[in-house]
Design a protein that fits this description.
The protein is an all-alpha fold. The protein has helices spanning about 5-15, 15-35, 40-65, 65-84. It has one domain (about 15-84). The protein has four helices and no strands.
Length: about 80
């Protein structure tokens, strides 16, 4: 998956907690990509790190205020739209 400049703009405009959640979400996506490629050591490392990144993302999401949740949903929607 390739992230466009608008994804970076979204993260730079986001509140600090939302920006960290977006960074973690990108790490989750990268892990999935490495696992899908099955390229040796990198896919093994990605498989080991994936649950950690998912838990970190979940913790960010649970700690967010309703306003931050809306901000995160909007940012994730824009990421998903550009990927489609």
């Amino acid at each position: 998956m390739i992230f466009t400049r608008s994804d970076e703009d979204t993260a730079s405009q986001a509140s600090p907690r939302v920006a960290r959640a977006l960074e973690t979400y990108r790490s989750v996506i990268a892990c999935h990509e490495h696992i899908a490629r099955g390229n040796g050591v990198h896919s093994l490392t990605a498989a080991l790190m994936l649950p950690c990144y998912q838990a970190e993302f979940r913790n960010f999401a649970l700690a967010m205020t309703p306003e931050e949740e809306r901000e995160l949903r909007y940012a994730l929607d824009s990421i998903c739209e550009t990927a489609a």
